[in-house]
């Protein structure tokens, strides 16, 4: 929660527009899809400059060979999560001793690194700090379920999408909103999304009659707020639905009537600094993964994700 506002309800801007968030170096205007994406909010949509050549070079050289530092939360299963044991699916987390990263994003990172002739390592960061870290040269790429948005394009560039996703709403069993079939049915409901993601942005953009709760940092924290009754509903990535429901049998996914759910979709792309000399190679590596392979990788990640 925001330390300056303990209420779960998001505060609106004084001009009557969409709620705004600010952070040093980031845009103050929340964009559209993800134009916020995933946060899509001001903090993730940084207006930072391109990393100096020296910083970029330093970030890519590691040990006796080339290391590709990939930024991610390592807390967003099945896209990415932290593991304690090394397996054929994991890569080391550089800034967490003895820890590894696994997940769908990690498998994409391994494919990209292989194409670049590099060894991938994860750098665990908050989602809303990834763009800053990229432009400061702390990481080489962002592979973290991040959407390519106009706001983010002001400070970084993106590959073609490596996954397509949509947005859903969870409520708890017994909720007065359990039988909702449209976004309009959530008028008056308090709805929360993950901070600095598209899932937070769409609440203000597509649910204007709902009360927009202050976002929290991770999806587990979002779901915890729902389970505790702090909010009526939460937004979430539909592709993760099965895993979330395995963890909490009281979650109810809303079944929207055709055309009554979110218009916004959430494709994820690889983020890299403007002028990144290996951009074409990254894009080629992404596009070399067939739709069939992507589905197989996703299904396997869902099967491995922690409960």
From TrEMBL:
Residues 1-16 have a biased composition (Polar residues). Transmembrane segments: none annotated. InterPro entries: Solute-binding_3/MltF_N, TAT_signal. The keyword Cell inner membrane does not apply. CDD domains: PBP2_AA_binding_like_2 (cd13627). Residues 1-46 form the signal peptide. SMART domains: PBPb (SM00062). Keywords: Signal. The keyword DNA-binding does not apply. Residues 1-22 are annotated as: Disordered. Residues 67-301 form the Solute-binding protein family 3/N-terminal domain. This is Solute-binding protein family 3/N-terminal domain-containing protein. It comes from Granulimonas faecalis. The lineage of its organism: Bacteria, Bacillati, Actinomycetota, Coriobacteriia, Coriobacteriales.
């Amino acid at each position: 929660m925001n330390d300056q506002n303990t209420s779960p309800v998001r505060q609106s801007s004084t001009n009557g527009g969409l709620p705004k968030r600010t952070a040093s170096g980031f845009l103050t205007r929340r964009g559209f899809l993800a134009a916020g994406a995933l946060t899509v909010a001001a903090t993730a949509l940084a207006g930072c400059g391109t990393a100096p050549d020296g910083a970029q070079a330093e970030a890519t050289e590691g040990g006796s060979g080339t290391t590709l530092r990939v930024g991610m939360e390592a807390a967003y299963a099945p896209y990415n999560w932290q593991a304690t044991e090394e397996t054929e699916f994991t890569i080391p987390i550089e800034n967490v001793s003895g820890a590894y990263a696994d997940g769908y994003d990690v498998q994409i990172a391994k494919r990209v690194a292989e194409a670049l002739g590099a060894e991938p390592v994860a750098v665990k960061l908050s989602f809303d700090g990834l763009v800053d870290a990229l432009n400061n040269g702390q990481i080489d790429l962002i592979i973290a379920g991040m959407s390519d948005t106009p706001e983010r394009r002001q400070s970084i560039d993106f590959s073609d999408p490596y996954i397509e996703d949509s947005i859903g709403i969870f409520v708890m069993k017994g909720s007065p909103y359990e039988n909702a079939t449209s976004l309009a049915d959530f008028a008056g409901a308090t709805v929360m999304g993950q901070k600095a993601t598209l899932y937070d942005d769409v609440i203000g953009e597509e649910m204007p009659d709902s009360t927009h709760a202050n976002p929290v940092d991770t999806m587990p924290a979002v779901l915890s707020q729902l389970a505790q009754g702090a909010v009526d509903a939460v937004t979430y990535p539909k592709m993760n639905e099965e895993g979330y429901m395995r963890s909490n049998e009281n979650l109810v996914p809303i079944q929207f009537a055709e055309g009554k759910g979110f218009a916004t979709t959430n494709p994820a792309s690889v983020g890299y600094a403007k002028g990144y000399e290996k951009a074409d190679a990254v894009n080629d590596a992404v596009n070399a993964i067939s739709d069939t392979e992507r589905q197989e990788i996703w299904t396997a990640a869902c099967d491995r994700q922690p409960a």
